[in-house]
Amino acid sequence: MPILTELNLYPIKSCGGIALREATMTAAGLMSQHIYDREWMVVDSTGRFITQREHIKMALIKPCINADTLELRAPGMLRLQIPLDLPDPDTAPTLDVHVWDDTVTAYDCDEITARWFSNALGISCRLVRFHPDAKRVANPKWATGVETPMLFADGYPMLVISEASLADLNEKLTAQGREALPMNRFRPNIVIGDSGAFDEDYAESIRIGDAILKPVKPCTRCPIPSVDQATGQIGPDPLDILQSYRADPRLDGAITFGMNAILLAGEGQTVRVGQDVNIEIAF
After folding, report:
1. What is the Cα–Cα distance from 58 to 38, expressed in whole angstroms?
2. Which of 104, 130, 156 is the last residue of a domain?
3. Segment 206-215, tens digit of pLDDT
4. What is the β-pairing status of strands 270-272 and 247-248?
5. pLDDT of amino acid 90
6. DSSP string, 89-125
7. Which of 3, 65, 88, 162 is the most exposed place for a label (fewest CB within 10 A)?
8. How many structural domains are present in the chain?
9. Hey, CA dihedral for 109, 48, 256, 61, is it positive or negative?
10. pLDDT over 70 percentage in the chain
11. Closest to 41 in 3D by CA, of 21, 61, 20
12. 183: closest CA among 169, 199, 202, 203?
């Protein structure tokens, strides 16, 4: 029987993740202690989002959720505490920010926070927080007509990968004398064990307790899997191996690994590592 083996929350887009024992399922993604996945984002001086694709040091910014703050650590930096309470909507400064083709309003975090991130990354940048009145939705073409809210995730609220899929890739890597890769290179939210390799690709639905996920779009892969999430250095790049068997004709030959998913049922349900997972394969 497949089981849930990992839950990962990424409070700040493209920065380090937090491994959870349990999380709340929401249509907009995983949530823990009222903090949502990709609720914050780093932007440049024009308000455009930045990621590890261009700034690999983002991997070294590690978050921790405390009672009333999001604590951030980075090499050579003092710890930064960001209040978890939402700012006062009547007085808090906002910015129009850009993530892919979307422009949305976000809360602008303070100058101390901007300086901290600028020093940590060596560029001029700011931290912003998703505004409750802002609206982003997943592409309805792939989300099967379901209006699916998102915060600052690239395109869908959750990413699902099975351990067997990674084991399949690592077998091919080690057969060529290359290092096996850890799962965190692919930054999934939900990891499933004891399933078949790439079962997530063919799943009609994935049930965890009362929560039902629908995988809707293969996750196209950029260079981020070549970034060692522990060191912030470029490491072994698996894209050439993936190219040999994971080029998807539905996406013009793009390399894919993992499945983007939306929540069909179970809003507010708590899921826990170790729970049974029911994967219904689409025939």
Report:
1. 14
2. 130
3. 999 999 999 9
4. unpaired
5. 86
6. TTT--EEEEEETTEEEEEEEPPHHHHHHHHHHHTS--
7. 88
8. 2
9. negative
10. 100
11. 61
12. 169
